[in-house]
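User: Fold this; tokens only.

Assistant: Input:
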Amino acid sequence: MAIKESFISTVPYLVLSSVIVLINQLLILTDFTTPYLNSIVLTKIIGYMSDFFPVILMTSIAFHFSKRNNINNIFIITLSFAIFITIESMINAHKAQWLLHDAGVSFFVLIIPIVSVALFNILPRFEKDLKLSNGQLSHVFFHLKSFILIYFVSIVAYLLMIKGLEVIASNISFGFLDLDLFSIMTLRTLASQCLWFLGVHGPNTLSIIAPSGSLSFPIINDISYKAFYDVFVIYGGSGSGLSLIFAALIYSKSKHINKVSKISLPFAIFNVNETLIYGLPIVLNKYLLAPFVFIPVFNIVIAYFYVDFFDISFINNQVSWITPIFINAFIATDGHGGALLLQLLLVVVGTFIYAPFIKRYSLAQSSSNHLENLKNNLEMIELMESNEGIKSNAAESKIIKSNQEVDKIIKFISSNKLEVHYQPKVDIIEGRCSAYEALLRIRRDDGTISGPFFLESLELAGLASVIDLWVCKEVRKHFQIWRLGGFDPKIAVNIHPDTLTDNKTIELIIRELKGLSVEFEIIERDSIKSPSSIANIMRLHDNGFGISLDDFGVGYSSFETLTFLPINTIKIDKSLIDNIESEKGYHICKNIFTLCNDLGLHCVAEGVEKDIQYLKLKTMGVRYIQGFYFERAIPFDHIDRFKPRFKDHESYQKVAT
């Protein structure tokens, strides 16, 4: 997640850089020039922006990794810079060039901040708080020893790593001596794609690790390695970007993937693909690894034999790599139709190869797609924006792991009928029932009723607000029917913590249930104390809805919540009711009930199933009871006829007291 966030954060810089590249190409084609805007100036700007990108990426990685590990951001960023500058200076000490030249090929920008965070967590802590009068200075010196130790440990480790890589690189270069140019090109392309997948510039990195003077040599029919590579292998940029974009636009249902593809398309036409690689992202994306790495290799093989079979030759091997597809082939071959047809064939085949992989990735990423499917299956009338209420960033790793399960659940919902049933809350003082809790149920094909087994998975996928809104719509429909018969019960509706942070869904819920006798049951979690949650709870209260605190006494429950939220009702959790037969359990329940009375709150005991539980609650003076003891949840068209049945408990009175 941190790696992904880091790459995505650099996308604006890459987009700007790509725009400048395209402007420069336009100036070259039109021969337009001014003192401050000309090809020479823009080429220098492009070079500097390319040189500075690695440190921008390293800064982003350092920031996101330190943030996720609760380490001071500036500490890790400055430490990473110190190590990076030292290593690059040692590597380039013998070169007459400035520090950042070719630094973009260094994989150190990826690993330095990550390793620095790891070392900070692993190395023993021996800092001492100096308690200086200046708090910021105290904080700086608190980490000083760790800063220095990690710096020197990292330098030694990286120098040893560099030495090992030099040995490997020399062996790789030596091995290439016995290979033909076609094999070298294939292996080099494969290695380049693997490096791009890791976020490192593939061709530039290989130019340093394994230099090759054969790039200008003819590979076939007087076509140089570089020209062949630019025209037939990486149309749309590394990984055959145009095929990936077309596959995404045709087969993906993820709005994020589609938007990034549309943004990347103008740049990919000119073979600038960084926006797609870092924005989608392709980097470290396990779903797109196989096609991204192997489609360019596939292109080499197909194009090589195609060019050989149709005897296609180049009259111009100096076509710029930024020249769009079809135009570059037209210029290089003087308009040979076979070359243009080959490019079209490769784009189409590449699109079909990418298709199943992009579908799978789209399924994994598309919380918005799950949202749309769920809304359609539940026949939602008003559409929410797909990004509203989706907690994909907070739970993305879990969403990806459970995406297939979520997809199966949505299909299950579409073939089975969801219903809202109502469990009575019985007033044991007056011996009647006028309040009910709305509960989601599934009616299967065989007519049996079961609980919603899928709620946790939908919650992880950020779709809880959709379920909540659907339940509210059903409750409104039921109220319309009940009121025609003169029946006007009080209904409690559960509302998920995620929904409480979703302003638009809360607005829709208020609109649905305004003026109805409805109470919202909320459960206490950390998120409930957020400003947005508190504001929306107040909105519900101000619009005439009651607020009930569910599952009180377990989990996140705290008395503090009762002080800042407009609570009307407290529901004692079933786990406490199950322990009411013990002395401790009895006194805990009794004291909660006493607290409710003192605060002027209604108290509901939920999950009551046994006679002894009922009797003990009755002796405490608890008025409202909910549970299987009286009735399970029943269909909406039966509750107007429900009347609680009370047993004769004379034989149990002594046991209860």
